[in-house]
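Tokens as discussed.
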């Protein structure tokens, strides 16, 4: 049976995540427009810096920082960010991003995977239209980026919400 197009691109993003260097979770992201891959990205330290797997230490892990918190302590650039950095904005406008995350220790898919708040802002500004996020080998969630614009989580707690 032929793989559907969305899972085809998610499979490619899953292969990209194998280059990730995080000791906690590795993600792979690809940006696709008009059936052409524009860019790829995976989790890793900025170019020239040592990666966590090379150092054998994760500051967030050592401090037991929960998922989704204190990303400023992380030495890695996220997969979504790397994919955006490696693409021209005019190529990203109206494109789709395919994102897959796996636990670095167990290899299991990251449950309820989603872009962090900083990545969301970058995705919005890049002009990407939608995300496809893998939940299992064949199941995925589709996210319309316009929903992030309308449902602005960054004002929660600030504007009395």
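Sequence:
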């Amino acid at each position: 049976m032929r793989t559907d197009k969305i899972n085809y691109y998610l499979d490619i993003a899953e292969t990209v995540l194998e280059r990730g260097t995080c000791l906690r979770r590795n993600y792979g992201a690809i940006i696709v427009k008009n059936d052409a891959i524009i860019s790829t990205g995976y989790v890793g330290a900025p170019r020239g810096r040592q990666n966590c797997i090379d150092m054998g230490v994760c500051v967030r892990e050592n401090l037991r920082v929960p998922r989704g918190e204190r990303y400023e302590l992380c030495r890695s650039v996220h997969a979504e960010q790397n994919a955006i950095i490696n693409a021209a904005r005019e190529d990203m406008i109206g494109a789709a991003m395919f994102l897959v995350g796996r636990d670095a220790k167990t290899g299991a898919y990251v449950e309820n995977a989603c872009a962090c708040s900083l990545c969301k802002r970058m995705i919005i500004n890049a002009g990407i239209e939608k995300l496809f996020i893998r939940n299992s080998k064949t199941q995925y969630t589709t996210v319309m980026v316009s929903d992030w614009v309308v449902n602005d989580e960054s004002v929660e707690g600030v504007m009395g919400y």
